[in-house]
Each structure stands twice: as C-alpha cells, then as structure tokens.
Amino acid sequence: MVFFTFSCFLGCSSWFLFWVIFELFGWVFLVFFGKTSESFFLSANLWKIFFFQFLSSSVFLLSFCMSGNHMYDSPFLGLFFMLGVLMKLGVPPFHGWVIQVSENLPISSFFFFNFLQKVGPSLIFIHYLDLTVQIFGLVFLLMVGSVGGWNLFSIHRFMVYSSIMNMGWIFATFHVSKLLFFNYLFCYCFVFWVFFQWLSESSYSNMNFPASLPSEFSSKIIFLFFVLNIMGVPPVWLFFLKFFTIKSLIFEGFFLMSVFVLLFTTIFSYMYLCLFSCQLFSKLDFHKKKNVKPLLFCLFFSSGMILYFSFF
C-alpha cells in the first residue's frame, strides 16, 4: 500500500488527486500506528495525528479551491497553501506536535512517521511553489533543525530535529536533478531504517544519552558507524551524496544556497560530535556477547558504496 501511494504521487498531475492521495496516505499510517501498539491506539497521540493530518489536508484543499488554478497570482493563497504543506510535513513552525507524538512512538512507527510520510508532501512542496519560496523554506528548515537539536538527551527528539535538518538537504538536491533527489532520499531513508532496526533489535529504542548508550564493544562500533554515516563525514556513504550535492549546487549557480546548507549542517554537527564523544569515551564491556552480523553488514555495505560512488 505504501509503495502504491508513492507511485501515485510520482505520476500524479492533478491537485485533486494529490489531495485524495494525501487522505489515503494519512489513513494508511493511522491504521499502521493503531496495529503497532494497542496502548498507542488508545492514547491521545493517535488523535493528534488524525487532527493535524485532517487540518493540513483541509488547508491544502481549501487553498486550491479558492485559487481556481491561479495560485501564483495571489500571494495570500500561496502562503495559505505553503502552511498546509508545512503542517503536513510536520516541520517548523508546525513541528511541536510531531515532537510530542514521536516521543511515545515505537521505533518502527517512528521511522514511518518521520521519514516515509514526508515523501509526498515534499514532492508537492517542490512542484507547486516557486524557487524563492523553496529557498526560504530550505534555509528556515536548516536553521531550526540545526539550532533546535542542541542539548537534547532523547534519541527520539534528536532524530526528529535531524530529519528536519535533512529535509533541507532533500530540497537542495532537487535543484540539481531529480535523479539525485531520489538517490539521496532513498539512501537517507535506508540508512535510518537500518539504524532503527538495529536499535529495536538491540533494545536501545528508548535510550537517552549519555546515560544509557551501548556498552558492548560490537554495539559501540555499530553505533559509532551510524553516527558517522548520519553526520555525512568521510569515508561513509552519505558523505559522497552530500559532497556531490554541494558540488552540483555550486556548478548550477546556487552558491549562496550551498553556503547555508554547509553552515547549518556544521552547527548541527556539534550535537553529533557530543553523541559521538559520549559513546567513544563511555565504558566498554567485553563480556557481553552480541551478534556481529550487523557490524559486518554495515562495514561491507559502506565499503561497497564507497566503490560505487568512486566510479559515479
């Protein structure tokens, strides 16, 4: 069902079909959340998701009905439409409810809620808004995501702000090429999916740092690998995508955009470095035996991507 809705988003050219898919996509995730945890289904978080999904879809539909296919002629309707999309994305200034909901989500639902659900609204944000609005939204996302992630000790909250900041990278890749956009989106979602699967299987899904970081040697190495990959530092996978994005932005004439992307990413790297240092200098435990297959998979997959992008 999820892949079907993704295909509809990519092949859709009518605003009404966009709205229908919005509603369909929202109901898919509501059903998924309800089946993941019975206690969550009875909590107020589910109603928060339903309320904001319904409100954002209503704003989206109302803006199109009022514009009559002339949205670009009315700055007010364009702003009204943008607010609906930002609310659907759960990004600033409408990210407070996402943080509250994500705090109590299981790690599997957290991935779908903060990553896969944002694909459709991201495509609409790029297709229906002009370049000036897109650049403003990109800088705003990078700024709030980089500053808001400071001094957070919950892995859920930290990843929410990390996803907000990386939305700026995703929007930036679209100005280079659609192929790079989908490559970055796929790689970014895949890295986080593997990371969350490892957290869930290792019982680290509700950890707070630095109090409850992994202490086993193999878990430490895997955790440090994922932190480096999310940071986008060499020689891991996402570094090559970010490097190619910055290089392409400069060649395409978006020099100022590349400066903002690098600046706010560097600011947010402070929190990555804090997380990295807490894990690096924490106590080691060599007595607990963990499965090293995820470690071998991570190292092999990283080296394979390095070779791939070396010939890209």
From TrEMBL:
EC number: 7.1.1.2
Bilayer-crossing regions: 15-34, 46-64, 76-98, 110-129, 135-153, 181-200, 221-241, 253-273, 294-311
Molecular functions (GO terms): NADH dehydrogenase (ubiquinone) activity
A GO BP entry: mitochondrial electron transport, NADH to ubiquinone
Enzymatic reactions: a ubiquinone + NADH + 5 H(+)(in) = a ubiquinol + NAD(+) + 4 H(+)(out)
Enzyme class: translocase
Subcellular location: Mitochondrion inner membrane
A Pfam family of this chain: Proton_antipo_M
Membrane topology value: Multi-pass membrane protein
GO cellular component annotations of the record: mitochondrial inner membrane
Keywords, sorted A to Z: Electron transport, Membrane, Mitochondrion, Mitochondrion inner membrane, NAD, Respiratory chain, Translocase, Transmembrane, Transmembrane helix, Transport, Ubiquinone
Residues annotated as domain NADH:quinone oxidoreductase/Mrp antiporter transmembrane: 14-262
Domain of life: Eukaryota
Family stated for the protein in its record: Belongs to the complex I subunit 2 family.
Function: Core subunit of the mitochondrial membrane respiratory chain NADH dehydrogenase (Complex I) that is believed to belong to the minimal assembly required for catalysis. Complex I functions in the transfer of electrons from NADH to the respiratory chain. The immediate electron acceptor for the enzyme is believed to be ubiquinone.
Protein name: NADH-ubiquinone oxidoreductase chain 2
